[in-house]
Structures
1.
Amino acid sequence: MKTYNSFDVAKQQVYEAAKILHLDDATTELLAKPQREFAFTMPVRLDSGKVAVYEGYRIQYNTARGPAKGGIRFHPDETVDVIRALACWMTWKTAVVDLPLGGGKGGVICNPKDLSDRELEAVSRGYIRAAADFIGTEKDIPAPDVYTNPQTMAWMMDEYETIVRKHSSGILTDKPLQIGGSEGRRDATSRGGVIAVREACKHYHIKPEKFSIQGFGNAGQRCALLHKEILGTGDLIAVSDSKVGLYNPKGIDVSKLVTHKLTTGSLAGFRGAEEIDRDRVLEIETDILYPAALENSINDKNADRIKAGIISELANGPTTPNADLILFEKGVKVIPDILASSGGVIVSYFEMVQDSSSFFWDEEGVNRGLDLKISKGFRSVFNALEENRIHSRLAAMVVGVARVAEACKIRGWV
Ligand code: NAD
């Protein structure tokens, strides 16, 4: 099976957008490379008394529109190219929904499943000690990503404040509510992905009856719970996690499924559906498919077998460029990640605004702001799609890349 380098995929997308926008060579080169990269080692004392030395990264891909923004991922298969790709995608994502932010991303190569809570805290604090000089509310504001969460952010914020000797809650987002987090953040990514589906259904006059989800972590679970609430209709018929797939054409009881996953740590053994192969979930006929796992899940090996009406990409980079073309030819409507999964960074931005004024909004206000930003982003992308007769990812890239290129030009960089 072919392996995909996510950063090659991300660069190819930049080149395609730059071509449509007729960008000059210098601007294209600038946008196809990270602006700044930091790599560091982090010694961490384990519970056994031994010291493990982990590799950590922070990449600020482009800051022409504002400080870098993006998550920190703890993952054993993390590579610098995956982080580059994620930082690159964050740059277009913040631009597509018109936030005054750039794109960044970070990571630590470690397996959180092998670490105790104390060891995870030591990794989180070690990351901030190494990165403290090059992050900051006016430079780069991290957030959680895969295998990091609000608790990780709390440890990281505390370490940062210990270093700078003052309160600095805006240094990271997606913190717990008690220490400067925002209402609505937990649901934001999934809520944004479902709002984008609502807009697409209106645009294409589709009434969705069933939906499927690949990946049942933070994003997948919240999406399962919010889909019917926002669309008013639709049953979850297929779902997977890293171990197993589940299928029930009559609909799966979502709240029982979430409880099962949270109590057992797995989808396996759930009584309300048939267990199937994990990867078959992507191929089951459905109105809406939400990929909510990792990169490159939809590729040229399986794209032809995908029978979804609309794909709303909650995951970052779930579809390879070849798969995009196959899906486009098949008429599958894709809401690309840089729009569909932008709800998280939108509410992160709201959190920064609230922290800077120490004035906090209620959940209704946050959700209303999120809805406005996603709906406006949807219209920009679908206008670009219709103007240029291109597939939706390229349309979203055209919108994001044009805005960042314009900021680089106004600043006199190119
Ligand atoms: P998570 O770690 O909570 O969940 C990931 C889930 O994917 C887990 O259930 C895991 O078992 C499953 N998984 C892994 N490999 C799989 C496979 N091959 N097939 C099926 N399932 C598999 O992570 P998350 O926060 O839910 O993020 C998921 C994706 O959404 C990532 O790409 C992340 O970058 C993206 N994303 C998340 C947010 C957010 O706010 N959580 C924001 C933007 C984008």
2.
Amino acid sequence: MDATLSKPPAAEAMSRRELEDFYEIDALHTPEERMIRDSVREFVQSEIVPHAGEWWREGVFPDHLPRTLGEMGMLGVALPEEYGGAGASYTAYGLLNREVEYADSGLRSFVSVQSSLVMWPIHTYGSAELKRSWLPRLASGEAIGCFGLTEPDAGSDPGAMTSTCKKVGDEWVLNGTKRWITNGSIADVAIFWARDVDSGRVLGFVVETDRPGFRAEDIKTKASMRFSVTSELILDDVLVPDGNRLDVVGLKGALSCLNQARFGIAFGVLGAGYSVFEEALRYLEDRPAFGVPLTGKQLVQSKLADMLGDLTKGSLLAYRLGRLKEEGKDTPARVSLAKRDNVRTALAVARAGRDLLGGNGVTTEYAAMRHASNLESVFTYEGADHVHTLILGREITGRAAF
Ligand code: TGC
């Protein structure tokens, strides 16, 4: 054989760290951010990743997880230490989400609802008493929270909510139905948003779920986010004391919470994307076709190059958003851009990974299809892709086209 036609042996494929840090973003993180990221990675890789597929298939969220996540310090990590947080940076919180979503978007949903949609509003808008009584328990995982904004007929337009609140003496009477609520049936406390029948303004409440008139029913028909509890909340004349009301008036209260959660998603989905990318690379190296490993094929390498490029750009976007947030410059439009673009990236990578795995890609033996299916939910929740597009359209043109 002509020696010039023979192929050189394959050089080493890139390691996980090299793939995930192609532009050396990690050098920009603080030692504390790297330490939090590494300890979460170790935990997620040993305790969650080996079981995530099975829990997803069975549609269970294991009971032990909230406490375990609490013991690991993974709930409310950016809140002050006096309330059970770690006082860590927002970037550290983002990196934590990314490590968790490497395992499954459902687990990241638990972490981000608890941290961003329950602990954050109690810390930001709650009385000293509400903070003292709830935050340490939510941080330890002893208590679980949920966030009730979306309704069966009011999703993208939460201002159309029909849930009501009415002050009677020193108490409020709450009524309404909320849908698509992560943790709903396992929650000890719900953040509930309702329109005041007297003032017409939207108000938020901290509602203990054992109050008479409160019930939750799980949505069991999901083909996505199966490793996560999703419920409907029904409040029928639930009474709460005035002290349970959050100190914010108008829809901006609920939307400011979503800003926190969307931030976490912008980082988190990259974890799902890298999980699929690395799985595809391992699979293709082991799988021969036409006499060589699939990694030696041009069309395959083209897809891998796209995945690396897109995930690297998403990582740069997330990193910069983290630093902007730490400077108080995380405007809603900036957060929308990162949520929208990084979810699109992760979903495209997951679909490409599914394709590269061929027939095996449609099974739950591999992670690609599970991640792709979960990311379809992430594409729609916490501001559907269309909503973020229109938020950006409004930012660019000054015209709201919702
Ligand atoms: P708009 O006039 O734009 O704003 C009303 C007030 O809110 C302020 N605001 C924000 N504040 C903080 N962060 C944000 N992201 C904010 N966006 C708006 C705004 O400045 C204004 O304040 P003020 O002082 O002038 O009153 O309101 P709009 O009604 O025109 O709505 C605009 C739109 C469409 C962008 C908004 O409604 C929106 O973001 N819709 C999407 C809602 C969404 O993301 N829903 C999903 C909820 S998640 C959920 O319930 C289930 S997933 C969580 C789980 O897993 O359980």
